[in-house]
Write a structure and sequence with these properties.
DNA-binding, homodimer, disordered C terminus, two-stranded antiparallel sheet
Amino acid sequence: MAGIPEPSIERLCRIHGLCHEMAGCGTEVVSSRELSERVGVTAEVIRKDIGNVGDVGRVGLGYAVKTLGERIEEKLGLGTERSACVVGLGRLGGALLEYGHFSLAGIRIVAGFDSSINRLETIRTPVPVYPAHELSVVVRREAIAIGLLAVPATAAQSSAEALAAGGVCGILNFTPVVVGVSGARVVVRSVDIVNELKVVVALLEQHGRQDLTQADERSG
Amino acid sequence: MAGIPEPSIERLCRIHGLCHEMAGCGTEVVSSRELSERVGVTAEVIRKDIGNVGDVGRVGLGYAVKTLGERIEEKLGLGTERSACVVGLGRLGGALLEYGHFSLAGIRIVAGFDSSINRLETIRTPVPVYPAHELSVVVRREAIAIGLLAVPATAAQSSAEALAAGGVCGILNFTPVVVGVSGARVVVRSVDIVNELKVVVALLEQHGRQDLTQADERSG
DNA sequence: GCGTGTGAACTGGTTCACAGCG
DNA sequence: CGCTGTGAACCAGTTCACACGC
């Protein structure tokens, strides 16, 4: 009953964001068809997804945006505010540190870490930054729940372990390395930007080869 | 024969990266088992994936790292150098502009765009930057193949269309909006960082509920 | 015997078809 | 008659089991 499939969770998170946006625009009701267009899947999938978080829909009318958003928030735990930190303050890490949109996920960045003292001194940010060797201690002290890993590949595994040692329960891994935290129960999810770019190129090649004769027409 | 499933393409791109790294370390041969550990899937999947790009393996010995890398590169089109641009030079876009790792995907960032003249003047980067209204023109002139979309959500769709009008064949979309380029044959792939963070939180909640009694032990 | 290659069974997520309410 | 809810059919991708070559 509590086992929502992962693809469904991904879409529900998107729907959650759309609800937030729609509520801001004053929209009160939304249909599965409209959601389907904005998420990029079929309406049936949307209905199944929403079914996973409990009955919200009014048959014949659609979904109450506010209720739907709250229901997803509650079921997926997106309501409770959590603290997070950024490990590795290079180009990407620095950007993440002040990204500003994480509050939409209920996340507040409360600390940054880097192994270079030089970088810690030159960086200009309102977020407190610490040397890498204090990672575990600060994570535990500040009750940080989630770590954003943006270190070089060589430091990925050790940083992940330090995060786990500090007691984080989730890691969003921006390194190209598959990090494994043996023992501790930590959710790890990876975003490999370079790889995504490669995939775009590969799909290009792929589609270019077979779609030269036949385009996939999909009018919405 | 040319239709490699997308999950397989994603993994092949990762394997491609690993080959590059291993070659740098002097490793000449690798087994499907070792690759499986570093990609995070089973060995059978790895073998199927590699099978998709043609016969490379020496039975009983493993795969020649160099040959494997080249074969993937060739089949997936990762060898040919391509130009790309970054649209939107906020925190994230600015970081992408100088990320430095895109060469691993055969990509060179040759231009940046932003609608704010102020930002264009204050940004310090060796990459040439242009006002947003010149997007299509510059993209065509510089033969830019891929666009990295890092604009605010409100500008996502119009920017994507401008990219398509300029003739890009691929878009890596960092906005939370599903952008559709009707008509043109453009590959769009999305990386929604805020959503990924939400998913981590949701999986946390999910796992926390059901795994409190039973951990998933998976020793490697 | 270890490691690749591959056809057959399986799984779970999506698509289809339709029942039911406003 | 439009829209949600849902059980049945479908299908892609993974897992399993095993044949073959070093």
